[in-house]
Predict the structure.
Amino acid sequence: KLAATDAEIAELRAKYADIDAGSIKTFSDFPFSQKTKRALTESKYTVPTEVQRQSIGPALQGKDVLGAAITGSGKTLAFLLPVLEHLYMQKWSRTDGVGAIIISPTRELAYQIFETLKKVGKHHDFSAGLIIGGKNLKFERTRMDQCNILICTPGRLLQHMDENPLFNTTTMEMLVLDEADRCLDMGFEKCLNSILENFPPERQTLLFSATQTNSLADLARLNLKEPVYVGYEQAS
Ligand code: ADP
Ligand code: MG
């Protein structure tokens, strides 16, 4: 059963180094898994938006990305597709624990990300959980260890980290901060720093926001490694 997967993974991996945003016209130009391609077609996503075209390549290559693009520009797929592909390429399975954590400033936005993930991830076999409070804490707690992808609000995630010694983030390989500028505006900086302390430093980080915020790059403990800037006027 794994032979086909191994061949596909090797084939995709061989194409990663040559991804060039300039020659991407449709989603089929990205070296995505068949599972992802099928879901994109079924969801009628054909042409990537600018932020997707520019950030997906570096993200697939394992680079940290700092992306700025206005509301409605398609930032959700710009991080969800690389998250799905990363876990797929690692042959992540349900028993491998939490592989990716996505942090969003509000419950509503977290819920929207979850809905989009259900669409584009529907042919994959990963488990995903929404950790946004309002629900039974105990219910979230028993479920979250079995989730490969967690979508969380900062306060609720920190609460679990503080109160649940069994919650294991050492397996985590990707961190996404969505609407990162808003997370900071809303006074979550201390909270984010506490969260980041719990994450392994060797991880990939994708940061997206509607505004160009250089203060994000300074966030203590973010451990960004020569991030690729997308949508920033002065590339650094
Ligand atoms: P942002 O997070 O930047 O505000 P979203 O990710 O919420 O934007 O996307 C805004 C809308 O655009 C959503 O309805 C989404 O389904 C749609 N969308 C995103 N990417 C594409 C695409 N490549 N083609 C068509 N529609 C898209
Ligand atoms: Mg968004």
